[in-house]
Amino acid sequence: MRWPRSSSRAATTFILVTVALDVLALGITIPVLPKLVEEMSGGDTMQAAQIFGLFGTAWALMQFVFQPILGALSDRFGRRPVILISNVGLGLDYIMMALAPNLAWLFAGRVISGIAAASFSTATAYIADVTEPAKRAQAFGLIGVAFGLGFILGPAIGGLLGGADPRLPFWVAAVASLLNAAYGYFVLPESLPPERRSPFRLRSANPVGAMRLLASHPVLLSLSSALFLYHVAHAVFPAVFVLHAGYRFGWGIELVGLALAAFGLSWAIVQGVLIKPAMDAFGEHRTMLIGFGAGIAGLLTLAFAPNVWVFWAGLPVMALWGFISPAAQSIMTRQVTEKQQGQLQGASSSLTSIASLLGPLLFTQTFAWAIAPDSPWQLPGAPFLVAAILITGAMALALRALRAEKPVSSGRDSGL
Predict the structure, then answer these.
(1) CB count, 10 Å around CB of 15?
(2) Do 1-187 and 211-405 come out as alike in CATH topology?
(3) Which CATH number, 3.30.450.30, 3.40.250.10, 1.10.8.60, 1.20.1250.20, labels domain 211-405?
(4) For the chain, which residues score pLDDT lower than 50?
(5) CA 400 – CA 387 distance, rounded (Å)
(6) For 1-187, which CATH class?
(7) Of 325, 334, 327, 330, the residue nearest 355 (C-alpha)
(8) Which of 27, 181, 200, 278 is at a distance of 20 to 30 A from 113, taking alpha carbons?
């Protein structure tokens, strides 16, 4: 299917707005959901923390299970209905959470949210449908920008709204999701024509079955394994950044928020502004390797920073690892047929969900061990060191994949 340039651009813009609004809606609830759980737990903070941890695990588990299902459904019925139904589902779910009378209802809402938000893989497949293979890395980078903007603005808006009423952010998130669905109903065309669709097969729609696709080709296997380690390492920020900055430098909430906003802005600049010139100058292969090198350098800087200024300097270096995922995803999309794009994105997203289950536990326990009075190291930056080791392993796997993948740009990616 050859898209008119204007139609392709409008569809891509809608998908990016959809992703940004979905992440914004999720981010709006971040500051208030723990407080709402605490309120429903009778003010017992310790119990609330345990329950909230269960909420997070359930959400990630739903992502793991339903990403490949929605991806396979989009391969069978098209991207448009899956995306629109997911938006409606998120909107109704936020209304349910706004009205939740107890923890059981709130937990059910969190489970439904995990299912509906699994449409992110379908949005990525849509971008693959309407973008030329050579330009997919840049397009996937724009998805990263949409994620970054959502997570920068969402918690800030949620904090302001939650100060007035802890349930108000859920109502605003519901309105954003439903308006987005209504807008998409009128402007979003289908990206996958009937002749390119594939049958829905349960064996490929479950997480284990979907991952067989990743094991079907040496490039897919190596790159998906590299991205898995990358996503585990990426969990170091939400897991321990706040605790580490407070413990080591005495930062308060305001300064931590400023640092995270600065990192989010750097991330958005990397994926929205720098990815195209980097791709033009170095090609996909070397751009991805630059991202790995910057990630290792930035993590080691954060782990061993002798003072706060060196720590600050490590943050923009870290942001350059935003080159990794768009380049890797672009290479992976060329290893499967057009009919398998949804299945590929669903399987890849399931791996990301597993990483989101494992990463926080790994890094919080590492941090606790590193600062314990009887620890032989006494290294508060140990989680960042562990993340650097994971990225080094991911880079080794990526190098193996790149040696097996045929170059796309004229000579730029050769010699690996």
Answers:
(1) 27
(2) yes
(3) 1.20.1250.20
(4) 1-6, 46, 407-416
(5) 20
(6) mainly alpha
(7) 325
(8) 200
